[in-house]
Amino acid sequence: MGCEGSGRQWTAEEVKMGGTEMKGKLTVKIPSATGLPDDTKAMLRVFMIKDALIGSKESLAIKTGAEKGTDVSFDLDKTIGLKGEYIAVKIVVRDKNFGRDKDVGVVEIPVDQLISSGTVSGSFPLEKGGEVQVELIYEEGSAGIFGEYESTSDSD
């Protein structure tokens, strides 16, 4: 399974599986995004996608403030504890300019890929132009040590 954009359709087999058990900590590092469309006021949202009976359910894990420019520095480095079954980590770059509030691009990284390698990193292209630099590090262990991840809100 590779990294997919926002049009990701989960197979019946993946939905039936119910996701992959994750128990440990996930460190999300997103230093910057470059080459964004002109006059973008970019913000990040990071979701953990859980399998649900009808489609997938997204739980907001991390949200940043907005930065203006075609090249922005997020300096995001956050660790969350995880305990449960997940199918992907979804990173959304949004344009928060007045009246727009639209996605610049979406990156989805399957948790199977993250668990098997421990780290996923690189520059990922965004649908409306530019790219976002991402590093995800997963460490298996007791989520309780790190503070069990709890949903802060559902996707909007």
UniProtKB/TrEMBL annotation:
InterPro entries: C2_domain_sf
Highest rank taxon of the organism: Eukaryota
Protein name: C2 domain-containing protein
